[in-house]
Amino acid sequence: MATTAPRPHRLSARLALAVIVALLLALPLPGPRPRVAAATQAADLVLVNGKIVTVDPAFSIQQAVAIRNGQILAVGEDTQIQALVGPGTRVVDLNGRTVIPGLHDSHIHAIRGGNTFTRELDWSGVASLAEGLELIRQWAAQAPPGGWVQVVGGWHEAQFAEKRTPTGADLDAVAPNTPVYVQYFYERAWVNRAALAAAGITRDTPDPPGGRFVRDANGDLTGELEGIPAFNAVYLRIPPPSLEEATANSRLLYRELNRLGLTAIGDVGGGGTDPDTYRAILHLWERDELPLRARIHLQLNPPGGELETLRRYLDETPLGFPLRPMWGDDRLRILGFGENLIWRAWDGDSFTPRPVPIPPEALAQVEQVVREVAARGFRVHIHATKDASARLLLDILERVHRDVPLRRPVLAHIEDATPETLLRLKALGGGWAVQNRLFFRPDAISTWGEANVRRAPPLRTALRLEVPVGGGTDSTRVATPSPFFSLYWMVTGRAIDGTPMRAAEENLSREEALRLYTMGSAWLDFDEERLGSIEPGKLADLVVLSADYLTVPDEELRRLESVLTIVGGRPVYAAAEFAALAPGHP
After folding, report:
1. Are residues 520 and 539 in the same domain?
2. pTM of the entire structure?
């Protein structure tokens, strides 16, 4: 055997050419080929006879997908994927149904909402105030001693036949003895006399700083509360659930999110930094019972003590584990802090012409938090309702970034974002989290102005500027968690009652909106290499839809849901003809 390579000469070149020709002749004729991961073993699960919307770079449509060990093994035509079926493979006929990547809400409060899920009424589908009040009456009649009835957002009076909000007197009439709390975005809430009594609030109780207990001409409380401090004076008196109840409630909410097509959530502040808030989701995760992927940001509480709380969390282990960036695994992971870093820097949540001013001392504290968080390698995900507030926050982020590089900072909301603001955020390597909050605010045209609303938010502008954008809802207080309400709003620009809001030139195509809710959100949460599309090697998070997202009439988009949700190759929700695949099904 020769020990040195032969010198190149003309004969070896001819031989090399002959080998290349022979290899080319041996190749199959051109045609569609399955995209297969490196492994070629038989699949665990194969879905065939469907419309697989991959959301890959080409937005290709395929027929079948093969899954092995929780990952996508191959995507292609039925006949090609059949080659990966082995003796132990489970084959599911999709009956022509559409499959999309699992949806990813990049800005949601599901941990908080999960803890109290069965305690809260959902008014999102209620057609009249009378119907909503009747639901409260029924719940109050069945409430245990000390129990409350709660409606915590996701509705607007425009959906009601009466076109009005409830009053404290309405709540007294249907529930005279059971405390009732009804919240309207982050602006107002209504409670009955029983709730005021349980919270110890009387006509002589002074208004909390930044909030108001509304009184009538005689000075008597009406049951209306204005502002978060007034809300919390009542809401924080509601008895918290036990760990057992919170775990059961969370399991039910996460199953509901699976039914709505969600396989991943970016939770922003799930109740603050109280360890009790996270015990239920950690309990499910530790037992391998968490049916979706959670990316968590911790919100600093209490107001006025945010810096002390941050330092305690960075130096101690109040959650039961050392707090460090990206702690966790593919199912649950701690990313950083948000959405309110300093409560006094909160710029409001109402769509009014003028932003709520942020005091200079609050901005100085925000900078302290950002510096300490960035120095430890965490990211920030910050609330900014208005462009004016975003500009102030960007001043801070840019200063910190010059000293300590930031990791994909995210600004949330900014319904009136300007191109300049978006480009500044992009230059920091950051992204924008948008939600369908205006879907529930048809009144914004009169309160905020038509010119503002017509471009709110500027989705098309952001895509043109190549700014990273992720979709979401801001539920469970501001909106309902259905991503299809949000996708409908991205595509049509219409509010809950059909009112045209955003101008057509800022709306998105269905393909673009879906990409925001999959790849876009995955990028915001550092998951773009593992989630967001149906491609070989990615985690097998898929949703089989009740109807075809790409072709149903616009008004049907809002009614879409999942009939089969798969996370990591395992069904976590199943209905209709796939019911036998449901977890625990015999």
Report:
1. no
2. 0.88
